[in-house]
Design brief:
Blueprint (H helix, E strand, L loop, with lengths): L1 E5 L4 H18 L4 E5 L11 H9 L4 E3 L10 H7 L3 E2 L13 E5 L5 E8 L10 H9 L10 E7 L3 H11 L5 E5 L9 E2 L5 E3 L17 H9 L14 E9 L6 E10 L3
C-alpha cells in the first residue's frame, strides 16, 4: 500500500497548491491513499464544509484537522456526517466528529487514520498515549487492519519523538504536524514505523507560517497586535511524505519526503 500524507494546508495558497497537484501526487507516487491535513485551510484557521468537500471531490481520501477544528463553526455538523474527516482523538468522546476513521480501498484493504493533540504548550487534553492505547486495543497490523497512520499535532518536538517511539511497531506511520516547518528526520524506526517530526505546511514559504510577514514582524518588534494576520493567497508549495507499506505486516518499507510547487 502506498500512502501519501500532505501537511497543514494554509489558506488559499495551500489549497490551490494541493488541489493543482492531487492528480500529480496520485500518479507520481502511485498513491493508494491520499491524506491531507486541512487544519488551516479556511483563511488560515479551521476548515469549512465546502473546502473539505472540494478536497474530497478532487481526489483526497481522508482529511485530518487539529486544534483549530472548531474555528469555522459550520464544520461541526459535517464532522458528524462524514467518515472521511478526523478531529483530535483526545478531545472528549462527546465532542462532534470522529477521532479515528477506517477507510476501505477499492481492493478491500483498510487503513485506520487517527490524530492526537500534544499537551506541551497546547491545550489541556487527555494524555495522547493513553487514548491511543485504548484505540489500538481494537486493531492489530496484518490482522484486522492493513495500515495505521497517527497524526501527532503538537508544538514540542520531544513529545512527538516520544510518541513515535512509544508507537513503534504498532502503527505504520507517525507523522507530526502543526508547526508548519518541514523537518529533515523522515526515517523508519527500529520497529518498522515510518516517522517524521513535522511534515511541513502546504502554503506560501515566503511568509511567516503561511501568513503575510508584516503583522508577525510588527508583533515581534513592537509588541503591536493591531494588524490582522492575513493569509498568503499565491505561490504555494506542497510538502508531504510518501510511505510504502508492507502488505503482510502493515509496517513501513520506505518513507520519502517531497515538495511540489503548486501554482499553474
Amino acid at each position: 500500500m502506498k500512502i501519501v500524507y500532505c501537511g497543514d494546508v494554509v489558506g488559499r495558497a495551500g489549497r490551490d497548491a494541493v488541489l493543482n497537484n492531487l492528480p500529480v501526487i496520485r500518479d507520481k507516487f502511485k498513491a493508494d491513499v491520499i491524506i491531507i491535513n486541512v487544519e488551516n485551510a479556511a483563511h488560515g484557521f479551521g476548515v469549512t464544509p465546502g473546502i473539505a468537500k472540494d478536497f474530497l471531490e478532487k481526489g483526497a481520501d481522508i482529511l485530518t484537522t487539529g486544534n483549530h477544528v472548531w474555528q469555522q463553526r459550520e464544520i461541526i455538523p459535517f464532522l458528524d456526517e462524514s467518515k472521511q474527516i478526523v478531529r483530535p482523538l483526545n478531545y472528549p468522546e462527546t465532542a462532534a466528529g470522529h477521532g479515528a476513521v477506517v477507510f476501505e480501498l477499492a481492493n478491500g484493504k483498510k487503513i485506520l487514520v487517527t490524530q492526537v493533540l500534544g499537551r506541551v504548550f497546547m491545550e489541556n487534553v487527555d494524555n495522547p498515549a493513553f487514548v491511543l492505547d485504548k484505540l489500538l486495543k481494537n486493531y492489530a497490523l496484518g490482522r484486522n487492519i492493513d495500515a495505521i497512520l497517527v497524526d501527532v499535532h503538537a508544538e514540542c518536538t520531544s513529545e512527538k519523538l516520544s510518541l513515535g517511539h512509544y508507537l513503534d511497531g504498532r502503527v505504520s506511520i507517525v507523522a507530526g504536524t502543526h508547526t508548519h516547518v518541514p523537518t529533515a528526520d523522515a526515517h523508519i524506526l527500529n520497529g518498522g514505523t515510518a516517522y517524521i517530526t513535522d511534515v511541513g505546511m502546504c502554503g506560501n514559504y515566503d511568509s511567516v507560517l503561511g501568513f503575510d510577514k508584516q503583522a508577525p514582524i510588527d508583533r515581534l518588534c513592537q509588541k503591536y497586535n493591531g494588524n490582522r494576520l492575513e493569509v498568503c493567497r499565491t505561490n504555494g508549495t506542497v510538502w508531504g511524505i510518501a510511505v510504502d507499506i508492507d502488505n503482510h505486516t502493515g509496517l513501513a518499507k520506505s518513507i520519502e519526503q517531497f515538495s511540489l510547487k503548486g501554482d499553474k
